[in-house]
Amino acid sequence: MKKLFLLFLVLIGMITCQLYQGQAYLVNTCSTNVDNITYSVMRSNTTANDKQRMAFIIPASQLDNIANGTITSTYFKRSTSSGSLNAGANFRIYLKNTTATDFGSVSPDWATETGSATLVYDSNPQTAVGSTAGYKQFQHSANFVYTAGSNLAVYTEYVQTTAQASTIYWQYEYSSPCINTSNSNTTKYVSTTNAFGATLTSTNYRRPVIAFDANVPPPTTVPNCTTISAPANAATGVSVTPTITWSATPITSSYVINMGTTPGGTNIMNGVDVGNVTSYAIPAATPLSYSTQYYVTVIPKNVVGMATGCTENTFTTLAMPCPSVNSPGAAATGVSTIPTISWGAVSGATGYRLTVGTTSGGSDVVNNVDLGNVTSYTFTSALAPSTTYYYTVTSYNASTNSGTCTVRSFTTTATLPPANDNCGGAIALTVNPDLACGATTAGNTLGASLSMAATPCNGNPDDDVWYSFVATSASHVVALSNVVSTGTSSTTDMYFQVLSGACGSQTSVVCSDPNTATVSGLTPGQTYYIRVYTYSGAGYNASFNICVGTPPPPPANDNCANPTPLTVGGVFATHAITTTNVGATADGTAQSCQTSATNNVWYSVVVPASGTLKIETNSVAGSTYTDSVINVFSGACGSLTSVACDDDSSADGNFSLVSLTGQTPGATLLVSVWRYSSGTGTDGQFKISAYDASLLATSEVSQAKNDLKAYPNPFADVLNISDISKVKLVSVVDLTGRVVKTIDNPSSALQLGDLKQGMYLVTLNMKDGSKQTIKTIKK
Questions:
Q1: Where does the record place the Fibronectin type-III domain (predicted)?
Q2: Which of 163, 523, 563, 606 lies 20 to 30 Å from 209 when distance is taken between CA atoms?
Q3: 287 or 447: whose pLDDT is higher?
Q4: Class of domain 325-412
Q5: From CA 763, how far away is CA 38, in angstroms rounded?
């Protein structure tokens, strides 16, 4: 047991020592500034044989944390981020304890000053370590003990015999409180390219940014008390979230704060250790009380114990402030007769009171009504038009209030508010069965007030009027039209917001952008509200028409699983169909040739016997659909492979044309047609067709070439051709598109007895390059 106890004591001793072995200690705590013109702790410039000697004194008040410590390294801070220190330079550092506060007005003798100092560093500065721009550590070859209570004189000597490739600058302090800007005798220096003189001839109040490594012995006594600098003792009108500051004290590891509402009290802070800092801010989340006197003590602490007998300061917090009123503006005119008064929240307030009267300070309209913890109030009934009202908003909590606050005024408009000035008076709109909006409702915001404080969509709402509609489908389009200014401003910026839920408990569904919006995800039979508003202050009012339309249902071919089949013809016009994408949605299938596309519809087509095929879209007169994208796929829905994609190859404006070759006859391709989404076009009608010249003989060849006959039809084993002399090759294709027989240089009697019963397409490839296809039936 005794051995274990001894080991524990040794460990405690080691830990105690480590607590007081210093790392880099920054002497000054002011903002650092770069002086890169007059002088430098190391000249390090592009002049050969450049030399610098410097001496400066650091007051003991800035060295408390290394009292009686052994300084093992000195740091200077470099400001230049590039360039290496000269290999041909030498740098010396001397340290000395001194009672002097400066070097006086005479030029100090270098030999005398350094003769009584300790040379702690004498080497090439390249041996310093640290970041390129930042602190450079100069490890001492001789340690130096700093005596507590002494000032510290620092002497540096830099000599370079060759020029630097580029100048390197070092950071300097030149601001109070770390530097006495009125005493230039604290820093002396001389710069030369010749031999050093005997004295330091130049003065400056600047001082290099400096730091030390110091091994500081553990304290043997408790620290002395500190002095609180803020809030000042007996201060009044102090913030409820004040920052308490105090002076640093030697041999201190941390500070303890006691605070209460009575002398010596600790009901606010009871022995709270805030660490080795010199300030503590009361958190905003837990502010002090208004109009309350507080007592505070800051007690230095170390491993020996806490300071004793420390002085307690007192301060009194400010009274609860008055709310900052946002609207109506001071002395505003043209204010709605049902106005909303709004204000900013006051920290620590739990409620607000409102007084309104028709005379300054009067209360004949609202008499000091407790509104609760809110930041706005909307009058429940209309005020008189063209009347000036005076109002005051005050704040309070359980222990205090803001007292008398500023009386503000506003004058109401001469116009009475519209009946639908609030949600409860919303006007019911007729829902149109289409997008034509045959039924519209006229409205006007003139005289309206702001009935919802929160900004809903865009701008800063000034007033609003309300409408409602009962959804008849899952999607409706709300639109404003014929917007005309009716106020003192010519601006007609208007927006609307669609909301669900009952008045007073509503959720925003959609915001306009700016005067039309599609509202999706609606529940048929449910009532929705539309809040129409202008913004940007008094005078911004407008009349308008509002309507609710119903988009058409999506087309049957809005998805890959239900494509519209296309019949392949010989030319575009043969089997072209007029179709539409109105009501369609984008299904997320990627396009390889145009990413700005939307609202696609689907088609299918069977590849003809030739293996070649064109798929093309064209315009429809009067349609607003003006630009298409075609994407052709093979495979099945959910596992598609892109075959081809085209944006604008059709000869018809910006419509598309896909030309396919080498396709498998009889294979089914899926075709997705998109509308280009970045243009000015909208959804609407367009034409689409699939065609191939190999099918021209079926119905499109000219009568002059369509004079060959096949007989008998139906046939048994032999099919006769009326004039075989014009035919070079015959191909027979079944209805799946598969070529089942080819006959070169045929005779007029085609032997087809080996075919199965059914329908066939017999294509006669003419010697002049044309084709004729005849439908035949094998008995």
A1: 324-415, 461-553
A2: 163
A3: 287
A4: mainly beta
A5: 100
